[in-house]
Amino acid sequence: MIILAIIFHLLLIVKAGFFLSPELTLYPFLTHNGFLPYKEIIDQHFPVILFGPISLPAVLTTNPLPLLALFLLIIALTDYFFYYGLIRFKSPHRQLPLIAFVLVSFYFQVNFFWLETFICFFLSLIIFFSKSDHDFSKLTLGFLLALTILVKPTIIPGIIFLLFFLRPKINRHFIVGLLLPPLIIALYLIKLDIYREFYQLAFEFNRQHYLFGGLQYPNARQLIEVIIFSTPFVFLTFKKAKTLLLASLFFSFLAYPRFEPFHLLPCFFLLTFSLSTVKLSNIRLKFFTLLLLLLILLNTIKLIRHNYGNFYLNEQTITVSQYVKNLSGNSVYVFAGNDLIYPLSGKIPPSYFYLPSLPWYLEVPEYQQELILALSQSPQTPLLVNKKVKIDNIEIVRNDNYLIKFIKENYLQLDTVGEYDVYVSKILNQ
């Protein structure tokens, strides 16, 4: 059963196409080339997974094959440990929660490879190890709990309620495991002398800019979908798993401030796990079967309508990357474009400074000045500008943008490749 479920899950993802987040390739590439997180890579996430001592090595994140293989492996292992965790919990319906997770996760965009992918994986391991009293299991459990919190600290309340439900026996091995990840991260930040920049981005920037600049509410359809597919789990398990349901509620905070369906995957993971607490009557089992049939129908429609392939690694990105690779020099600046161009071309951002082309970063005056300084110090660096990109229906490249004014005053358009305009410094053409 478990093998068939895993194969089915992976086939759904491959058939529908997948979104391998460019950051998972870009950040290991940049750090491998000597970029310092927070000082030279402007990003508000904690130094876990994306960069830092507990991160993915560059050799595993090269797009497309190694990264895709890693993604599918994590999905398979999540299903595997979830199923055997259900066995350890002596679930009366071992297949049902697994099938429910496969179907509901696909509907809520499990084919997006992002931090929630790792959180679901860690949760499956946490459930699996929570029923073991071996010292190694306790050490691993503590380590995984701390790691999950570091990936997205907003889920601390959810982790607390999950622990109340799991009730693991806490000993010194558990405490050591719990302390290891934050200790490793702290030593890393101190050693590289980037703890001030880390605090500024992970706390001050998130509070002052991202909470407002990145705000995106669910639309009416998305809200209805969440209610329709979460209510049956709550209705069926409320009497037996109140604490677990509260944990799943707090895990839904991952979708704040920027709602995207895949942010809810850990929430639905715990909701499907809540089925392990109840033995469904025939009537309730039939009702739940109807829900699964509805999911099968909707997922089938999704498969018919969409086939994204490797979404970010499209033909244009490959063509543009090859074009950039043939340019002289070792740097390029990509404005409002696909950041995979950097690792695919082997070029790095100018003057060892990377700023994401996202509104909540570009609107910060301090980062605008640092970016313009980096460009000014590297006049030999060509610029690639994609004027068609929009985020939240807002054009990134606008005439009133401070960076665009700088480009128009100091650069000449040399060429066009795909949707990208290629600019070179006027200084080099005088």
> How many individual domains?
2
Low-pLDDT segments: none
Mean pLDDT: 94
- The count of β-strands is 10
Number of helices: 19
First-last Cα distance: 70 Å
Rounded to an integer, what's the Rg over CA atoms?
Answer: 23 Å
Strand order of the largest sheet: 5-6-10-9
Described by the principal axes of the CA atoms, the overall outline is: globular
What kind of sheet is the major sheet? 4 strands, mixed
Relative helix content: 55-70%
Give the helix/strand class: alpha/beta
Strand content: 5-15%
SSE run: HEHEEHHHEHHHHHHHHHHEHHHEEEHEE
Task: Give a structural overview.
The structure is a single chain. The chain is α/β, with parallel strands linked by helices. It folds into 2 domains: 2-305, no CATH class; 315-429. Helices cover 58% and strands 7% of the residues. It is built from 19 helices and 10 strands. The strands form 4 sheets. Strands 5-6-10-9 form a 4-stranded mixed sheet. The chain is globular, with a radius of gyration of 23 Å.
Question: What is the fold's blueprint, element by element?
Answer:
Layout: H1 2-16, E1 19-20, H2 23-32, E2 48-49, E3 54-55, H3 58-61, H4 65-88, H5 95-107, E4 112-113, H6 115-130, H7 135-151, H8 156-166, H9 172-191, H10 195-213, H11 220-237, H12 242-251, H13 265-273, H14 282-305, H15 315-325, E5 333-335, H16 341-345, H17 359-362, H18 365-376, E6 383-386, E7 390-391, E8 394-395, H19 402-410, E9 411-417, E10 420-425
Helix pairs in contact: 1-4, 1-5, 4-5, 4-6, 5-13, 5-14, 6-7, 6-13, 7-9, 8-12, 12-13
